[in-house]
Amino acid sequence: MIDWQIFTSGLMAIAVFALFGWLISLVRNNVTHVDSMWSLFLAIGAYAYFFNFHDTSPRSSLILTLVSIWAIRLCVYLTWRNWNPHEDHRYAAIRKNNQPNFWLSSIYIVFGLQAVLAWIISAPLFGAMVSKQAINFIDVIGILLFTFGFLWETLADMQLAKFKAQLSNKGKVLNTGLWRFSRHPNYFGECCVWWGFYLIAFAGGAWWTIISPILMTLLLLKISGVALLEKDIAERRPTYADYIKNTNAFVPGPPK
Q: Hey, CA dihedral for 42, 17, 24, 105, is it positive or negative?
């Protein structure tokens, strides 16, 4: 039985933060910082569930700790990577396609949409928070999968940042390190993180929250991740076509 009062408290908290982000976008004339807000949306939802469910448990403390570590790391990295006066080309295209009055429509096209998606994806965090079952072996598997995904994603981001920092690599394709085995190892790590969260929720009886990792996987593969990034990247980096032929898109594997 879902306690909708607690679950919707997460939506309310996320929505307030989204509104704050929208107001900042009006001052900056730039919505790119919504990427930095994404992980915080989910952490804020988790904290709302935690503080509205008074009967806390080891599982709720566990999930809150893991999501906090994940959210802070991703927010700091994306803020460091993206914070400049120029709007990311993805959002610049959205702005161009939604004129006039993008400043107003961005409240639901950009911030509202991501807030609602974050709330839906936060379901395993809610499920783990309200569970009263004891920690068990499935929780351990979930923790291990989360840890693997977190470290894989972090290492991939570090390798990409180091590669881009060298001016001689401008226009080139990173195909070493983890990027030798997958064109998007950071997204693969992110996927593992959310399946890890789901296993922890599943261990507590919240099997129905499987919609979250499925939706996250679809987003990473078909919508905002791999598909969007590779839509025009071959035009900007001619050698990327060969990279596609020789390297798995998502799940790591030996180069062909």
A: positive
Angle 37-82-155 from CA coordinates, rounded to 5°: 85
| HSE-up of residue 59 (Cα within 13 Å, Cβ side) | 31
The amino acid occupying position 246 is: N
| Count of beta carbons in the 10 Å neighbourhood of residue 165 | 8
Mean pLDDT over the full length of the chain: 92
Q: Residue range 126-140: average pLDDT? A: 94
Q: What is the pTM of this model?
A: 0.93
Phi, psi of 136 (to 5 degrees): -140, -170
**Structure tokens, 34:** 């919504």
Quote the CA–CA distance of 164 and 124 in Å, as a whole number. Answer: 35
Neighbours of 148 (CB within 10 A): 14
**Domain residue spans of the chain:** 1-132, 135-256
Span 2-45, pLDDT tens digits: 888 999 999 999 999 999 999 999 999 999 999 999 999 999 99
Place of tokens 């995904």: 149
- Phi–psi pair at 255, nearest 5 degrees: -60, 145
What sign has the CA pseudo-torsion 38, 74, 254, 174?
Answer: positive
Task: Tell me the two tokens of residue 89.
Answer: 């080309």
- SS3 of the chain: helix, strand, coil, percent, to 5: 75, 0, 25
Confidence band of 182 (pLDDT split at 50, 70, 90): very high
